[in-house]
């Protein structure tokens, strides 16, 4: 047990170091590289590459390299993205975003495969239930991993707080913040003239070093899959070919319930894209300064993690319908309030209320939508979750893609429209389920949603 637990901890802390860097960088992209929308364009390209990557790369790489070296190699793709930010241009950031997107799916698949093999191996030797051990391993992993959103954002805010060129924001500049933004470069209207290059390079240096430490940790301390486990690994990786997986994913759309869940799944990408791409730029950076972005996103991450844990526990008592209703009302209220609110530095608490409420809603969208897919498509989980990843990633791509082309109030109306459509189509799904199987409880499964949720988060 000690050896297996050691490997679980090595993977967990490796991912913690890696995503401390990536999570912090993702939150800053729209504010740090706002010229011509370079930052959000890079995120849009990144998620498009992730769609392609998830379709065919994971089984191929894991078979050729094994889990350990697939994890190490994929982590290097994330380091490339950090390096691309040192000299951010269309010729450096876009290619490194593609590289990161291609490495994202193999990284998560290799991690899931490794933890599954390790759990089954220990369970077989100890005479325990494999599923129970695997759940324990994933529990340990996400307990450690979830804090990466806090550390990455904390580092960025602490470093950017060192800027000495902070000035008062004029009312004229504040008029360009919020829903009716002026579509200008917010780094010119923020409370500071933007962080100096030395501070940016310091931050990127820390993030890059964090990624390198993650790779070294995996290479030096993670055990390779043993030879007596090779058969198990091969069985787990006996996946269909690219074309059969590709066709199965789209063949699954013949199920009308899957088609009806597309708006809800895409909304998950839309709402996350809005918070990290638009809220951070046109509300926080514009009115308070880039050094507050990290603190605001820490608030989102903390509430999101706590609520994910809470909703996973209480969904068996409340059922998923009540939780979806809670998330809908909360998100709709936030969207309407963001349309009406004019951000001002004196209302600093309000800047944290929105991400906290957003984190509560997002916890429902992630845990309950994953659970819903698991319940509805129990016999076709592979094709169902392939559709989940596909449509959520499409939501990200679209949200980041139009980010620089539209004013924020238009994006908020789009967000509200997709939310309403999502709830209408979700209601139809629940009606069809109730009609086909009367008396079946609607509480979602609370187990095994964590790994899938985080896979869609990169």
Produce the secondary structure layout.
Elements: H1 2-32, H2 38-84, H3 93-126, H4 130-145, H5 148-160, H6 171-174, H7 197-221, H8 230-236, H9 242-251, H10 256-287, H11 293-318, H12 320-340, H13 348-376, H14 381-401, H15 408-436, H16 450-456
Helix pairs in contact: 1-2, 1-3, 1-4, 1-5, 1-7, 1-10, 2-3, 2-7, 2-14, 3-4, 5-7, 5-11, 9-14, 10-13, 10-14, 10-15, 11-12, 11-13, 12-13, 12-15
The parts where pLDDT drops under 50 for at least 5 residues are 186-192, 440-456
Largest sheet: none
**Shape descriptor:** globular
SS summary, helix count: 16
Mean pLDDT: 83
Give the topology string: H per helix, E per strand. HHHHHHHHHHHHHHHH
The proportion of residues forming helix, as a percent range, comes to: over 70%
Radius of gyration: 22 Å
- Distance from first to last alpha carbon: 29 Å
Name the beta content range: under 5%
Strand tally is 0
Structural class label: mainly alpha
Walk me through what this model shows.
This protein has 16 helices and no strands. Residues 186-192 and 440-456 have low confidence and may be disordered. The longest helix is centred in the first third of the chain and has 47 residues, at 38-84. The chain has 458 residues and is an all-alpha fold. The protein starts with a helix and ends with a helix. The protein has helices spanning 2-32, 38-84, 93-126, 130-145, 148-160, 171-174, 197-221, 230-236, 242-251, 256-287, 293-318, 320-340, 348-376, 381-401, 408-436, 450-456. Helices cover 77% and strands 0% of the residues. The protein is globular, with a radius of gyration of 22 Å.
């Amino acid at each position: 047990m000690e050896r297996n637990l050691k490997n679980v901890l090595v993977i967990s802390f490796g991912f913690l170091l890696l995503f401390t860097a990536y999570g912090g960088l993702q939150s800053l992209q729209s504010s740090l590289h706002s010229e011509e929308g370079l930052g959000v364009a890079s995120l849009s390209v990144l998620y498009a590459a992730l769609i392609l990557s998830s379709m065919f790369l994971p089984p191929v790489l894991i078979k050729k390299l094994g889990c350990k070296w697939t994890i190490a190699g994929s982590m290097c793709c994330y380091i490339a993205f950090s390096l691309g930010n040192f000299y951010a241009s269309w010729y450096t950031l876009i290619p490194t975003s593609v590289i990161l997107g291609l490495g994202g799916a193999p990284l998560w698949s290799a991690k899931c495969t490794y933890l599954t093999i390790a759990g089954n191996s220990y369970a077989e030797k100890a005479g325990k239930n494999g599923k129970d051990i695997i759940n324990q391993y994933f529990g340990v992993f996400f307990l450690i991993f979830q804090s990466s959103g806090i550390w990455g954002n904390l580092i960025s805010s602490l470093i950017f707080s060192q800027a000495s060129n902070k000035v008062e924001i004029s009312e004229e500049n504040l008029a360009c913040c919020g829903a009716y933004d002026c579509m200008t470069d917010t780094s010119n209207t923020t409370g500071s003239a933007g962080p100096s290059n030395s501070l940016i390079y310091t931050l990127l240096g820390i993030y890059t070093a964090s990624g390198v430490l993650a790779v070294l940790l995996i290479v030096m301390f993670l055990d390779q899959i043993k030879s007596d486990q090779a058969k198990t690994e091969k069985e787990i990786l006996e996946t269909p070919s690219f074309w059969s997986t590709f066709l199965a994913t789209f063949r699954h759309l013949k199920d009308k319930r899957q088609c009806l869940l597309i708006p809800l799944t895409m909304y998950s990408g839309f709402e996350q894209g809005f918070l990290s791409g638009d809220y951070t730029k046109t509300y926080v950076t514009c009115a308070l300064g880039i050094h507050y972005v990290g603190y605001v996103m820490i608030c989102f991450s903390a509430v999101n993690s706590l609520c994910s844990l809470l909703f996973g526990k209480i969904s068996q008592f409340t059922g998923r319908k009540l939780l979806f209703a809670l998330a809908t009302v909360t998100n709709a209220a936030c969207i309407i309030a963001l349309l009406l609110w004019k951000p001002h530095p004196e209302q600093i608490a309000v800047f944290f209320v929105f991400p906290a409420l957003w984190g509560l809603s997002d916890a429902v969208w992630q845990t309950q939508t994953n659970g819903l897919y698991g319940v509805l498509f129990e016999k076709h989980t592979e094709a169902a979750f392939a559709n989940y990843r596909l449509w959520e990633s499409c939501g990200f791509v679209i949200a980041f893609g139009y980010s620089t082309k539209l004013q924020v109030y238009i994006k908020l109306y789009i967000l509200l429209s997709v939310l309403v459509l999502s709830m209408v189509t979700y209601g139809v799904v629940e009606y069809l389920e109730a009609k086909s199987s009367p008396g079946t409880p609607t509480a979602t499964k609370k187990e095994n949603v964590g790994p899938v949720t985080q896979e869609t988060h990169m």
